Each structure stands twice: as structure tokens, then as C-alpha cells.
Amino acid sequence: MSEKIKDNVIESMKEVWERTKLLHDAPNHYCPGCGHGVVHRLIMEAVEELGVMDRTIAIAPVGCSVLAYNYLNVDTQQAAHGRATACATGIKRVFPDKIVFTYQGDGDLAAIGTGETIHAVNRGDKFLIVFINNGIYGMTGGQMAPTTLEGAKTSTSPDGRDVDLMGHAIRIAEMLALLPGAYYITRQAVNSAKAVRKAKKAIKKALQYQIDGKGGTCLVEVVSNCPSGWKMTPEESNKYLDDEVFDFYQLGDIKVPPKEEK
Amino acid sequence: MAKIRGHVIIKTEECKGCDLCVIECPQDSLEMSKSLNQKGYTFSILSYDTCTGCTNCALVCPEAIITVYREGKKVKATRPISKGQSV
Asked: For chain B, which end, N or C, has fewer CB atoms within 10 Å of the first or last residue's CB respectively?
């Protein structure tokens, strides 16, 4: 089809989906097929649709997504390793009308920042934690993370994770759901179009709770893939998520807010 | 046969060739190119005129480089659309 005919075809059509304006034009540095790009986009789409881009503050972690401020066109604060939730607590308390979310990986939130996370959720500070769980330290070369599944091969567990020596995988979302400060906790995925739609709904819902000033801390865990760290193609990694990872990290709402009494 | 017609535009220079949109496309309209872009990746292209503008490819694209267009309402196809018909 020549360019001219192509233009005519498009002129007669309506644009139904385009890249959100809240993502910078810079191409991202993530590996091909990485779920980070999708989650960046979902958060920014949710923020745009809710119309709160002028008062949103993002907290970037240390990890693969350390350069999130290059992509997210909202105010961003870079926190020390694992301290994003502590940083978010400070910002939310100083500016209670701002919409604050942290964006953390599993090395950041579930390993070095476990203490900060638990206490932030226990205090019930009203911000959103977006937790990207890919069960590996992607940035440093695919080492074992606390969330690595039993038997999974990584560069520091070449024979597979041995639970007698290395312990079990942590289900952070279930653990935090026990705390009274947690308001809305859910686990989602981004490995198919259907899952992406559901994940976006969950992120939007969590941000809406914060805008309404309800309850406590919201956490959206996104079980993502790491094709480079897992030594798989993007297609294989998405299939691995379906076949094995979702048996352990079961998707769905873990803690939902109580129904309001009228 | 009434069918919704759609079209996608892909910024091929930013594509990293992860293949996810090709797998996700329910109409099998997309395919990977034989050639490479400037970064050295193969990229996805709209090869068949079967696109319905369902936005599945755009939803799973980690780079957010796909723009989807769709015709406003259902129209009758003026010619039989068969898979494999090159555009």
C-alpha cells in the first residue's frame, strides 16, 4: 500500500488508541519484552484519565526502573535503595493533597526495603505502592531474589533454589494484607491483553481510593517477566508465567476495602 | 460479511522485536520483518488487511509505539478479505 492510500485509509478512521502524553518520547532502556514498559504506561494512563497529573508525585526505586524519571512525565523523586516507601510517607505527610505512588521492584521492596515497607503499610499512610515482582534481580545480572520460586535457576542458584539452604519465596502481598493499615491489596499480571486490562483497572481503582482520601496504603503487585534474567525469549517467559509462576503467585484481589455503611 | 476495519501504525525504529504483539493479535495481521531497524532489531509490521483495531497489540507493547485506528461503525467489506492478501 502506498503512503498516499495509507493516509486516505487512516483519514476515514478514528484514532482509538495512542501513546499517552504523560510518557516522555524517549525510548525506554528496558530489555525487549520487559513488563516494566507496560506498567509505566498503565500508571500514566490511569493518572491521565483521573486528571491528577498536575499533583502526582512518583517515587522511583533502585533497580531496573531506577531511571523511571526519564519516562514518567510527572514529578519524580529518586529514593535510596529500598527506602521509597519511607520517602513516600514523608512526601504524603507534608503534602496530603498530592497523589503519591512508589514504583518498586522485588529487590527493592521485598529484600532491602522489607522493613520500610512493612512499617509504612502498618502506619496506613495513604499512598499507592506499585510492586513489580519478577522473581529475580534483573539489573545486576539475574541473581536470586527473595521472591525467586523454589527450584528456579538463577546465577546465584545455578542448581535451582534449594529451600533448605536458601529459604522459601516470600508472598509479600499476602503478608502485608495481614496488617490493619493496608486498604486495598491486589496481584495482577501484564502478560496478555486481558491481564493488562485488568491490571489497569486495579491501578486506577487504587489511585481513585487515594484521590477520595479513603483508608490506608494500597498495593498493586504486578507479576512481571524478566526475559533476560530468566534466559528466555519474551514469548517463553510469558508462557512460564502462565504455567508455573501463577500457581505460586495467584492473581486476584487479596484485600478489598470493607463496604461502606450508608 | 460485516467487519470492522482497523489499522495500526508502528514506529518501527523504536521497536525491539519482542514479538509480543504478533502473538497477541487475534487476527494474525502482524508479522515480524525480515530486515533490521537502525538498532539492529527485527520489527513488527502490519502485513495482512485483517486488522479490526482491537488494540490488543498496543496493550501488550512494552514500548507503547503502536497507534491504533478504527472505522467508526461496522461497514460491509467491499471486497472479500482473505488472509495472505498482501497490502
From this structure: N
